[in-house]
Design goal:
There is one protein chain. With about 375 residues, this protein is an alpha/beta fold. The protein folds into 2 domains: about 30-160, Rossmann fold (3-Layer(aba) Sandwich); about 165-315 and about 345-365, Dihydrodipicolinate Reductase, domain 2 (2-Layer Sandwich). Helices cover about 35% and strands about 20% of the residues. Strands 13-12-11-7-10-9-8-14 form an 8-stranded mixed sheet. The protein has a 6-stranded parallel sheet with strand order 3-2-1-4-5-6, sandwiched between helices. Helix 4 (about 115-125) packs parallel to helix 5 (about 140-150), helix 5 (about 140-150) runs antiparallel to helix 10 (about 340-360) and helix 6 (about 165-175) packs across helix 8 (about 210-225). The two termini are about 15 Å apart. Bound molecules: nicotinamide-adenine-dinucleotide. Nicotinamide-adenine-dinucleotide binds near residues 42, 111 and 160.
Amino acid sequence: MIDLDRRSLVLAAGGALAATAVGAPVWAATPPRKLGYAIVGLGGYGLGIIIPQFKNCQHSKLVALVSGDAAKAKRVASEHGVPESGIYDYKSYDKLKDNPEVDVIYICLPVFMHKEYTVRGAAAGKHILCEKPMALSAAECEEMIAACKKAGKKLMIGYRSHFEPYNLEAIRRARAGEIGKLRYFRSEHGFTAGGTSSWRLKKALSGGGSLMDIGIYALQAARYMTGEEPIAVYAKETTDRSDPRFREVEDMIEFQLEFPSGVIGSCMSMYSANQNHILLMGDKGRIELEPGTAYSGHRMWVGSGRNNEITPPPGPGKTQWAGQLDHMSTCVIDNREPIVPGEEGLRDMRIIEAIYKSAREQKRIVL
Ligand code: NAD
């Protein structure tokens, strides 16, 4: 498990480094073929963030949409050059099978729909890129991995920070020993959740609260920054249950991760405050990112405080999302495993389940 993780990180960091060295992405050798994507779910992320990114891609193009809102799908299709024959709804989704233009299905749906649309998508003979968190449970993640394996299709999780230059540079510097021996990792991730009707605040639809949605970035960062797998967790939840937003899901959950080298990871996830911060402390210095995993505006300091601000070399794509999309495409074209495959989402879900268990039982859980 750890070996695979390390390999993933080296590949991701290597991608960024190669991009810097030769001025072009590491997969520039791949012929400029563009794979076709079907975006499933035209919500805040699918429509607002992902669809506009295809213009930044070398190997990925938008060819189909899946939406429950026919009028919206028609409008988006005409704005983005998708033919009417590329519009599907949730019932006709399986007909993607007959559309040779679609190579990859990108699932941008609420979490409770991830498993179903992955399994059906793989059965339709398409590769799957699925948003985080991968599913409601580790058991669902296992089903998704098995379905894609059975269909001989790739499965990647939308962990965009693996393609983001500040994160890649922080990993590179930590691995190069710039801050000495890593002793402590800290990360707080949160945003102020609003609107009690959101699927995010309904446990059956989201699988949980802030940890599933935003705290997962702190967990991911703890793993890719240290390059280690946690061996035990201890967690404490603090939620004001009289707040109508938090009748079903948690607000704050702090979790401590113990790593084999002795590094301690201290993470906080919140739905009641905006925070996005990553800090690595070594015996010779620190690396700090704030924001660390945002859409934009990243900043990074390396040294003893905030005197030495670093601007990293470009990442593997024009943007973190173009890097992510083109990584998926080149993995399909070259028949390689994505650096963030389904197994990576499964690892996070297993740890998340242990964090919830620890908070519930108020005890340290060995992984
Ligand atoms: P959203 O609520 O804005 O959009 C969800 C979409 O799913 C909508 O188009 C909605 O109509 C559709 N949908 C279909 N059936 C539904 C149902 N029964 N209930 C609710 N919606 C239904 O959500 P979003 O913010 O776009 O999130 C979608 C996925 O993307 C989630 O997995 C989320 O975690 C992920 N996400 C990832 C990032 C990131 O940075 N990687 C950022 C935001 C969201």
